[in-house]
Amino acid sequence: MHPPLKVLIVDDEASQRSGMAAMVSAWDMTAETAAEGNEALQKLEVFPADVILTDLNMPGLDGFGFMQRLRDSGDMPPTIVLTAFGNIETAVRTVHELGAYWFLEKPIQPGTLEVLIRRAGSHAGLRTENRNLERQLSYKGSLGELVGTSPGIQEIFALLQQAGPSKACVLITGESGTGKELVARTIHALSPRRQGPFIAINCAALPETLIESELFGHEKGSFTGASERRAGCFEIAQHGTLLLDEIGEMPMQTQAKLLRILEDSKVRRLGGKTEFEVDVRLVAATNKEPEEAVRSGHLREDLYYRLNVFHVHLPPLRERKMDIQPIAEALMADLNRKHDCRVAGITPEVLESFERHSWPGNVRELRNVLERAVILAGEGMIELNHLPAFLRARTATAAAGAAPGAVAAAPSATPAPAASEEGVLHLHVGTTVEEAEKGLILRTLEHTRNNKTRAAEILGISLKTLHNKLKEYGAGNGS
């Protein structure tokens, strides 16, 4: 339940002040009045108004001077200028030069005034929320649910503060598990659409035969099994934000239809005969290099350029190790609430183990490790014995003077990756990236006893990507 809007009414005519105050109070708002600008400035010190209604022609400090003082202070609430007949030109100049929210000509129409006050109040709420997010960024190294103090993530925070309030499309890239959906949610929270819905859809998780129905909706009888009309994601996300994750997995025919929607903001349900307008901000994400996806024919070039107005690239966790501790602390706070635990933090030995690990599954893998550790610890600190075996093994080997997973010298040219103790993969100098990737995938499958779904989660890739890799290796068969 939001608190009532606070409205300051500034007018030199007592009857006008009292009449508008009565109207505002009848709309479940809180009203305060002042007879001229100087009195209004004094009232604002104890009455933090969400919206100001001010006349222009007043004795003492007039409306124009009052607004100049507010503007120069850098803290001017949305202000509606009230003007008598013949002063329209001055009112318009006030809106443009001083940044007034709007103007109304007297006599005031109550219905119009109420609508304007409520809209101005929403504008004030967005401004306050943005200031709070900026304060989080400045003092806590966080923006919304995103956390980090590294220079790379700080640059992303600054970019999101610019992109969020705009209407532009945003393309988010980065490896699986880096937090692309959190970035999309932060963009939504920073936008004027934050009160609208946020809808996320994973294009790689939907069969090709169903993706258009999910996106655009369908009419009853449009295909076998369509027993009733169904709204698509564009309709559900009306006046909000729609995230299309793994956009590179969307069929090319669907990409063409998506491009058309982006150009004219109109959608037609499957089997429908008419189009209807949609007001949706689109955010797309992919774990592929978008230029490579265009070259390989997985992403339309024209769609790529249409989506890539703002490009946000999330670096993998291994490239921002200094963010591991603040991310872990934020995750533990969430996991404590989820599992009703009272874990206070992680020991220096655990942090050292985390910083030594390469985190192929990125933040998602870190969360999985911490969730297990929080449950096992229950309270106090997370210690080494609460970590999975593969992290404990690396720590023990490192303590013995030979860090596991480190590159070991080898005399031969290109030896294959060598599997050793449980959960550990050693790589030799000369191993190619392709061979290392293959060794990691096959070793992970051994670790999961050929459970491909679990292996894909550990590796931080989609199940479809894992199957494609196994086909390349000629190892696609099996349960």
Q: What does this protein look like?
A:
The chain has 479 residues and is an alpha/beta fold. The chain folds into four domains: 6-129, Rossmann fold (3-Layer(aba) Sandwich); 158-315, Rossmann fold (3-Layer(aba) Sandwich), CATH 3.40.50.300; 316-404, Helicase, Ruva Protein, domain 3 (Orthogonal Bundle), CATH 1.10.8; 413-479, Orthogonal Bundle (Arc Repressor Mutant, subunit A), CATH 1.10.10.60. The chain contains 19 helices and 21 strands. It has helices at residues 14-26, 37-46, 63-73, 88-98, 110-140, 151-163, 180-189, 208-216, 233-236, 252-264, 290-295, 301-307, 324-339, 348-356, 362-377, 389-399, 433-447, 452-459, 463-473, and strands at residues 6-10, 30-34, 51-55, 79-83, 102-105, 142-143, 146-147, 170-173, 198-202, 217-218, 230-231, 241-245, 266-267, 276-277, 281-286, 310-313, 342-346, 379-382, 407-408, 418-419, 425-428.
What does the radius of gyration come to? 29 Å
Structural class: alpha/beta
Number of strands: 21
Strand order of the largest sheet: 2-1-3-4-5
N-C termini distance: 52 Å
> Helical content, roughly?
40-55%
Question: What is the CATH architecture term of the largest domain?
Answer: 3-Layer(aba) Sandwich
Number of domains: 4
CATH topology of the largest domain: Rossmann fold
Can you say what the CATH homologous superfamily of the largest domain is?
A: P-loop containing nucleotide triphosphate hydrolases
CATH class of the largest domain: Alpha Beta
Largest sheet: 5 strands, parallel
Q: Quick check: average pLDDT?
A: 84
